[in-house]
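[step 3/7] fold_predict: job queued, chain A
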Amino acid sequence: MMSDTTITDVDAEGRVSQELVAAYRENGFVRIRGVLDEAGVERFRTAAEGYLEAHRSESLETGAVFSQLVNVWRRDPVLRELTLSPRLGRIAEQLAGYPLRLWHDQMLVKEPHSNAATEFHQDRPYWPHAGDRLALSAWIALVDVPPERGCMTFLPGTQNRTDLRPQDLHDSEDLFEADPSLRWVPRVTLPLRAGDCTFHSGYTGHMALPNQTGTARLAHVTIYIDAETTYSGAAHPVTDDLGLAPGDRLDGDTFPRPWA
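[step 4/7] structure written:
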């Protein structure tokens, strides 16, 4: 699933170049190669496959597009290590430029030959957050993800569009109906080797291509929020059972920052 030689953009101290930081801040996304080495990919992929087999029926996504399993870190000790990885957390803070916390993780799986795209959308409009700067997600490929296996396509600069309503990720026109000008933004598709990662802002428009191959597309996503984020009061599966009041900080053991 992985090339013999891992190419990495992460130095010995767990940092990325200022060129990659600048690219992230300009475009709202960046590819970081080799955040996991070959042994790490094998270990976490095996854990993800086992977790998916045991918990596929719990997917929040009930359609045919993908399986979505949330807060895996609370239930699987191996995948917890990936979600709470100090290496990933420090890279995320380097890109963001301010302290972060974990919002939640999720396993996103496109089954073999699912042949359905995840249409263009922004993530942040779905989340019950207030008082926050730009959240960002680390989307880690646990298998090779060329375009035909469902890699992502991004709309550069759309992290600055923070005023749009939530979009329907099953509807290829919905984001462009919310803002017709976005249809003409150049699109950047980023294939990933196993162990590579994309980071993207919560407001960056993006989509994932269909999986047309015979191999499941396994991605582990860690979502980071501004450490000062508060709860808006809106409904969300992550916060619905926590007894939070609007204005409460999203912090503590539920939303940790172990890389601090």
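[step 5/7] annotate
The mean pLDDT is 95.
The two ends are 32 Å apart (CA to CA).
exit 0
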